[in-house]
Prior knowledge:
Blueprint: E1 4-5, E2 16-17, H1 19-25, E3 31-34, E4 44-46, E5 58-68, H2 70-77, H3 81-84, E6 90-91, E7 95-104, E8 115-119, E9 132-136, E10 140-142, H4 149-153, H5 156-169, E11 177-181, H6 185-196, E12 200-205, H7 209-215, E13 220-223, H8 229-232, E14 237-242, H9 247-256, E15 257-265, H10 270-300, E16 304-307, H11 314-325, E17 333-338, H12 342-350, E18 357-361
Parallel strand pairs: 11-12, 11-14, 12-13, 14-15, 15-16, 17-18
Antiparallel strand pairs: 1-2, 1-7, 3-4, 3-6, 5-7, 5-9, 5-18, 7-8, 8-10
Helix pairs in contact: 5-6
Amino acid sequence: MRVMRSLRGSSKAGLVFRLSSRRSIFTGCRAVMLPRFGGPEVLELRENVPVPNLNPNEVLVRAKAVSINPLDCRIRAGYGRSVLQPHLPVIIGRDISGEVAAIGNSVKSFKVGQEVFGALHPTALRGTYTDYGILSEEELTEKPSSVSHVEASAIPFTALTAWRALKSNARIIEGQRLLVFGGGAVGFAAIQLGVAFGCHVTASCVGQTKDRILAAGAEQAVDYLTEDIEVAVKGKFDAVLDTIGRPETERIGINFLRKGGNYMTLQGEAASLTDRYGFVIGLPLATSLLAKKKIQYQYSHGIDYWWTYMRADPEGLTEIQRLVGAGKLKIPVEKTFPITEVVAAHEAKEKKLIPGKVVLEL
């Protein structure tokens, strides 16, 4: 039987408890369950949801705040059903900020009581909308004392998505030019990361976000509702991150790149094609489509083309934590809801009543 370490129930740090002891400590765990795909009304806040065994490299986090990402809403509506359908009901959610409640017996980086924040992989089956989230050691980092749990919970998934695009895909370096389409959470994180890397950043946005983007260090912000970006923006770029992912933004972004540049889109089709056709047909079809696009744009424009996704990255998370602590990376939170009002929170996001980041408090 797997074991874990906990400080609760003992006067000695590092005491080993078996599963039966831990369940007597961590009882009455609430979790937001997704029993079937659909609108916000399908979400169920359930009591006494079991807390699984910790694997040796895992950390049990007592959640203080979890943020709502667009991916959470898409999963609730059926995105990724090819992976999730056999496992329903599942707990949704990716971001978390809270306090370490217990650690697996090989975890070295954290101790019980420590404040942490982090994010799960997009395909994780047990999410973070729960009193006790379980993440691997590499998916967490210490929360800076300068930010609250609400503020911290809004950051990791979006920032790691932007980090993967800029560092893993584009391998962007100081002095290069970066164009970001979209001023939402991932786009805003990418702008701040690009500025922190010493890049020259230009971004497209809408209305009221323009001032915020310029204040974050972008050299130019173009309101795509009132300005023609192809006229307003001059010169070529080393990297384009397209968080919108429409054919028109892809065309414009590709044409803005210099030879050897990188185009990254968040709207890859691997999950949607697999959902539509199943793993046997859908996954090879997605792989073929991506390969075709890569070859097409390499031949026509001399650039690299990427579908980019969030991935756990300990190095990236450490740098994100440093930037957050230094006040150089933040994702504004527009509204908070108690976890008991999760349906109302998802309804507000679904109806676009709250354009900014929404956080659930526990």
